[in-house]
Amino acid sequence: MGKVKKCFLSIFAVWFAVYGFIAAPQQLEAAVNDYVTVTKTANPKTITTEEETEILLNITGTPPVNVVMPNDVVLIIDKSGSMAPTYGPNNGEDKMKNAKEAAKGFVDLMDMTKHRVAVVDFASTASSFPFTVDKDAVKSYIDKINANGGTATGSAIDAATALLADHREEAQPVIVLLTDGAATESPSNTDPFDYALQKAQAAKDAGVIFYTIALLNPNEDPETSAPNILMKNMATTATHHYFVLGSQGLDQIYAAIVKEIGMASAYDVTVTDTVGNDFEIVPGSYEDNIPKPTVTGNTLTWKFNELKNSALTFKYKIRPVDKTKAGNFPASLSTSSITYKDYAGANRTKSIPSVNITVKLPAPVITAITEPFGHPDGGETVTITGQNFVPGAKVKFGLTAATDVTFVSSTEITATVPPGKQGMVEVSVTNPDNQVAKAQYQYKVDPIVTSITPANGPLAGGTIVSIKGEYFMKGVTVKFGDKAAPLFYYSGSDQISVKSPIGDEAGPVDVTLTNPDGTTVTVPEGFTYDAPPSTDPEIVSISPDNGLVTGGNTIYVNGKNFKSGMKVVIGAKDATTTYISSTQLRATVPEVDEPGTVDVSVRTADGELYTLPQSYTYNEVVYPTPTVTSVTPNTGLITGGNTVYIYGTNFVNGVTKVTFGANSVNAIYVNSTTLRVTVPAVETAGKVDVIVANKQQTAVLPEAYEYTMPIISDPNITAITPNQGSIKGGYFAYIDGENFSGGVTVTLGGVNAGVTYINSNQLRIVVPASTSTGFVDVTVTNKDGGTETLVGGFEYLPILPEITSISPASASRAGGATIYVNGNNFDKSATVSIDGVDAPTTYVNATSLRVTVPASSTVGEVPLVVTLSNGQTASFTFTYTDLPVAAAPVITRLSSVSGKAGSTIYIYGTDFKNKPKVYFGSVEATTVVYTNTTTLRVTVPAGNTGEVLVKVVNPDMQESNTVTYTYN
């Protein structure tokens, strides 16, 4: 194995120079060319913050046609019993024969002037034929292979690796493995599948190019086939893996492999693709790649030995990190690249292009509106529930924007419904990125009827009846009693006209309106079917029905069956009469001597009177005498300007006047018993009369109001509760004392505080913030100028941190765990120590610190201390837990038990940890590669000839057993 992993590309260049297959100038010119192309695509290129996109990395090689590297190829051929025609699932197909014929065809196509070939045939055990350039000898050996036994795939790879240990220095080592079944046998009771994979990986790590061919049954599913899955995972890349259903096409696969052996675009290829900062890799989305990448953070790394001329595609998925951030972002960073060696051994770097991904916020969705209906006047608050709402979302009902739109959460918005028309309307929620969600809302209210005109009509029907009100919808239906009234005209939501249907009998009937949405209203006895009309005149009403005794005013006599020539009689006097219609007469009221109520009559041409008794009133022209009973308040400062109320009787709007002493003032009429006035200013204190006058009618309330001089009253502070607090301010304090007045102001250290006047003995203030700690004076100033200062009355205290919890409250004493310290009043410079040891601290916000736990030798409870930038501290209990006891490593065997210093061996066993130490005697190996928990690759350190004991020491200082290694 020590000879397998070589820098054969450099040797290959020397070999060409010595043997002269390609002239030096041609080689140098070819080495200048770039034989690798790479593209990157994303599908889809537009996603939401909740979605994923698949990244396709397409890498294509274009090998130089005039450069062929010598290869030493081992053909591994499965000869297990499942290859025989007698094996049931084969249905008589002789897979063994077909495999041998295809393998011999492979040998025939090989250029033995450049390449060599060897054969490993395996079942439960492996046999081999050594490297040769004799095609006939190889084919003769292949002819003798017979199918029988199990499938020890790992052992076959071991045998091939042993043959390749002696490959030519200038030749590329290659394995071409064909099998039809899953690995079924392995040594030491190890899992055959895992054992085979480990052997294949060890060979690839040593520089071997690995081709695999899965020979499947015709109806076998490649995606679930155990041998196909094993072969895919063994291949150098996906382009180095093939499968066939039945033996059909097997010879073409071998021919394709022969054609490309020795021709490659790149060697020792490393593909490093770093995802952009706005995305993260979807875990597991890269598992189906061949080879599988190593994923560290946001970086995927593929390593493989060579790149051919076919396209190699790697797939993985990414998703946005910030679920609230939209925009156009690069899928990968500019540091993404492919490094490789060209055929001449020169190191190459190829940048991997990026692709931009458009990230949108998810479209909003409305699932419900509560309540889903409301009054057309709007003003109701509705709750819109759904998904993907964001701050700044706008809400419309139809084309009208809602008011008071409040973003509650991504699933809830509240809004005030604007006015709208009765019926269904589309509700839209539009996020700031113009994505819209829609739902339905119903403006719904029972119709309201304010008038029905006329309210009566003949039994024969046909009366055009105007119904006024609100909330009539198009399509509204009307019934008089139980009979439909045909719609005559729809004027709008506030008026309709219908034809009265034929009535059954005289008298009132209910009028019912029903909107298309089912809302309805019934006006009891809303329409009356008239009895057959009388021809006698009839007075129904007088408008207006009163006036002054001076007469001369116009009234209207309303009724029916009026005729031209009829006269109106008021009391006993004829009035000048004008005929307007059969239902109305206009009359000029005659003058009378005395006030009172009189009859109004209509006299026909033949002298008959038709009277409406006591229907018109003559009024006296006189203003009432006012009275003044009280003035409230009845005292005030000589400066005036304050409002008082005058109570009494017989106040007349627009007539009543008020005088304070000798000063007239404007009086605001409230009602007949109340006036509101603004007190005028005077120069001297004292009591004055208040006079109220209705023109010539007056009333005096002697000395009803007293003017007083202003008195300055100093307040007195007796206590401040609390009298100390944080310099942040913003909290309540209460000032107790005496003589506080409305409009009072308060300062703390000269800074105004918000004040709420409770009563003359107590004030509530909002303590203002302070820039420093210590005592400050508290000053209270009344509106009249009286003031009181309590020196040092309030103390500003420094901000104190508070710890409320630690999550988690314990961690291993090994350190490195992340915990969160929760509490209040943390600042950006806060530090944390655990058991006296400073811990790396990240400020999250004023209530949270993120801390990395330092290592400790202590197990149990220890103090955790938060220290602010002002030196204030808070302490809490944190618990260190003991380290778990790991299993000690065990060495089961060495891949080689003897050799020279500098050679590479594999140590197999159990419970190996990453970054172990390996000792050969007392000498520590300097190159130790951790493969997995069961395999280490070690470069033998310098040592003297003879036996030494080899041991493995894990990072937790657990030591393995020892095994013997011999220095040759």
UniProtKB/TrEMBL annotation:
A Pfam family: VWA
Domain VWFA per the UniProt entry, residue ranges: 72-257
Record keyword Signal present: yes
Top-level division of the source organism's lineage: Bacteria
Keyword annotations: Signal
Statement: the UniProt record of this protein carries the keyword NADP: no
Gene3D superfamilies referenced in this protein's UniProt entry, alphabetically: Immunoglobulins (2.60.40.10), von Willebrand factor, type A domain (3.40.50.410)
Signal peptide: 1-30
InterPro entries: Fibrocystin, Ig-like_fold, Ig_E-set, IPT_dom, VWF_A, vWFA_dom_sf
Record's protein name: VWFA domain-containing protein
Organism: Paenibacillus barengoltzii G22
Taxonomic lineage: Bacteria, Bacillati, Bacillota, Bacilli, Bacillales
